[in-house]
Amino acid sequence: MPKVVVMPSLFDSEGELICGVDEAGRGPLAGPVFAAAVILDPHTLVHGLRDSKKLTAQRREELAILIKRDALSWSIAQCSEAEIDELNILQATMLAMRRAIEGLSITPTLALIDGNRCPVCTVRTEAIIKGDDKFTQISAASILAKTARDAALMEMHKTYPNYAFDQHKGYPTALHLQRLREHGVSPVHRRSYGPVRELLILANPSL
Questions:
Q1: Burial per residue of 141-162, b for 16 or more beta-carbon CB atoms within 10 angstroms, e otherwise
Q2: In terms of CATH, what superfamily is 8-158?
Q3: How many Å apart are CA 109 and CA 119, to the nearest integer?
Q4: What pLDDT digit, counting tens, does each position of 130-165 carry?
Q5: Which residues, at least 6 apart from 166, have a Cβ–Cβ distance to it below 8 Å?
Q6: Are strands 110-114 and 18-24 parallel, antiparallel or unpaired?
Q7: Phi and psi (nearest 5°) for 39?
Q8: CB 88 within 8 A of CB 192
Q9: What is the location of CATH 3.30.420.10 in the chain?
Q10: Less Cβ around it within 10 Å: N or C end of the chain?
């Protein structure tokens, strides 16, 4: 099992204030992409932090409450479906991450970004591949981004119940693709994504 560790070299500078940053929702066909930034309190540990994908939904919700209660600062941001279609998912994800960092009530001196790319922002950044299971700060951000996105998809389900967003959370499952074919493209679908675009072209070949 991967161990959540702190890389000492990043903490050598006295007064360094570090936030973790992660996203949720790059792959789905619908809904916004979310990002979160978290500055943990070194004196109040949140036990059990790890990559949100390796936790049950119930455990993620439990940890999200503790993170919000005990962190020095946390922020959740998003980029809409329209922004994703306009910018592309990579740039929209970077923008959501930047918004999350800028939304913190405390300005960090370093942002640890899960993945191999960093958003352009005024804070110094460092990309950490698979960081959501290496650094507690990124694990915490992963959990907040995931729980926020899941909550948003449950609300979307209330508005568009025909698509079963409560079951697949927007991912391109067989059920989701079936509902797309049956009911067409909704306002919350990402029109630049292949399966959605194909249906739009079928309905209007001039696109």
A1: bbbbbbbbbbebbeebbeebee
A2: Ribonuclease H-like superfamily/Ribonuclease H (3.30.420.10)
A3: 15
A4: 998 899 999 999 999 999 999 999 999 999 999 999
A5: 153, 154, 157
A6: parallel
A7: -110, 110
A8: yes
A9: 8-158
A10: N
- In angstroms, the Cα distances linking 27 to 19, 84, 118, 149, 194 are 24, 11, 19, 12, 11
Tens of pLDDT along 49-71? 998 989 999 999 999 999 999 99
Which pairs with CB-CB distance under 8 Å and at least 24 residues apart come from 84-89? 84/32, 84/33, 84/190, 84/192, 85/190, 85/191, 85/192, 88/192, 89/26, 89/33, 89/190
Model pTM? 0.91
One-letter amino acid at 41 equals D
